[in-house]
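Input sequence (272 aa), recorded before submission:
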Amino acid sequence: MTQAQGNRAAEEQPRLLGPALPDQDLPGHDLPAHGLPGLDADPIAGLGTGTGAGSAGAQRETRLPSPPTVLAIAGCSGSGKTTLANELARTLRGLRFHLDDYYLDLADMPLAERVKQNFDDPALIEIPLLAKHVAALARGESIARPIYDFTTYTRVTGQSQRAAAGAFLIVEGLFALHYRELLPYYNLRVYVDAPDSVCFERRLKRDVEERGRTPEMVRAQYERTVRPTCVAYVRPSAKNADLVVDGTGALDWKVERVMTELRTRGLLSRAE
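Predicted structure, token format:
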């Protein structure tokens, strides 16, 4: 990869509070296909995008009557974790909360240096802020999440995205089970496992068909940063999972595995 560029297809994200933005192609790491990720969702009345300290959206606070059930969904790029998280969010009517908005603000770095950063490295996530926001959502509070612009590799100054979890919060990302600071907040931890060959073939198909890249470009990026990240950080985090599902299986089967586990643990009552 040119280390600092992103490439997760834009997918439905229920219960994010704010306007939808147009898609952009962000070649590189596994990120939503927007300049500003994480804003492709249904707005909720009365809450929206804050535009600084003076905005009503930034000032208003909400709290759920009871805390949400928190799930973590992790797995390597191409494992199927995002598809599973989206389907669970739809089924449970919860919020799919991905980690990509919490990349470090690189505004103090020249653009020529920003593009060289390896966004597949978990060190580039601002974990203190991420942990603070996951903790708040897990308590049933709303948050003003940052908005990250991957066209400049900086946070959008003076703006934030207010979000609330509903009955279920699905925290999804490569490193959802890697950061120890997040583990105490999860009621159920799920790891989506798939062989490296399957992950690569899925990524190859997506990037060639949807991103206009050549197979050579995809393979070079995969070998340089994507696969090493999986080996070094993502696969070892499976030890923190309560449930491992086969990423090569049918989606309905994977959803049922998670739903059964939630039911067994007495965590499904609010969805039934």
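Checked by second reader. The domain at 49-261 is CATH 3.40.50.300 (Rossmann fold).
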